[in-house]
Backbone:
């Protein structure tokens, strides 16, 4: 596998922004197919469409559960997971109940992640657990989440949704996404079998290479074309893609 292909297979092409139309989603799947990325992470209602659009490719179809705030009941998250898998999703990105984690209700948090993991694995799918680290200031909480995910056999721990905006004292919103300290922490405190997904802020080839060096194996990204075209140039691989015909939507991550 050449360097560009290896980098492409780290990317979950994100198609989650609320304003994306069905036409945008189909174009996003065309980008994912053209660049042979790992997967698309698409809105739940469009999973069946994505399966159809990506038939014959190696690109997997993933979706989100309890997105973006994680406030759904456990039963609803499990039902969403079951529906997504029946529709053809093979990768599930779930958001934890953030408030429960912050208050230290670890029995609830572990039970919920385990329930979604069991529903996911029953269908042969992969589970990625989103912490939403912008909302979690205490590293001890992140560490405990890594431990729980390892204990209940989650496949990935994931930094962020891409939409976890924090309101400052000035009334303005800010967002960090995948930070180096968090990625180091998550890799250190998760079992070796649990992979790490970075989401938010990975927008350039240098960003991608940096998180890869930290042990990240997947990234959620919208800047797929920019990163992989840059990779082709840097690693001396001729591009066979007419990028002028591919409109990349960089909303979200």
Residues:
């Amino acid at each position: 596998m050449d360097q560009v292909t290896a980098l492409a297979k780290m990317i979950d092409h994100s198609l989650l922004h609320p304003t994306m139309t069905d036409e945008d989603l189909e174009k996003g799947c065309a980008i994912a197919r053209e660049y042979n990325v790992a997967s698309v992470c698409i809105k739940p209602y469009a999973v069946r469409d994505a399966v159809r659009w990506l038939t014959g490719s190696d690109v997997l179809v993933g979706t989100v559960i309890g997105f973006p705030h994680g406030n759904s009941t456990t039963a609803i998250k499990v039902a969403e997971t079951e529906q997504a898998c029946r529709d053809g999703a093979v990768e599930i990105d779930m958001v934890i109940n953030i408030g429960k984690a912050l208050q230290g209700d670890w029995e609830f948090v572990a039970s919920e992640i385990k329930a979604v993991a069991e529903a996911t694995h029953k269908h042969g799918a992969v589970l990625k657990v989103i912490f939403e680290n912008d909302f979690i200031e205490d590293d001890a909480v992140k560490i405990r989440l890594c431990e729980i995910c390892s204990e209940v056999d989650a496949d990935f721990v994931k930094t962020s949704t891409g939409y976890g905006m924090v309101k400052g004292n000035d009334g303005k919103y800010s967002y960090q996404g995948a930070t180096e300290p968090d990625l180091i922490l998550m890799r250190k405190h998760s079992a070796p079998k649990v992979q790490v997904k970075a989401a938010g802020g990975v927008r350039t080839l240098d960003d991608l290479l940096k998180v890869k060096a930290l042990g990240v194996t997947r990234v959620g990204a919208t800047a797929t074309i920019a990163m992989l075209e840059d990779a082709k140039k840097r690693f001396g691989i001729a591009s066979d893609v007419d990028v002028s015909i591919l409109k990349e939507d960089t909303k979200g991550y």
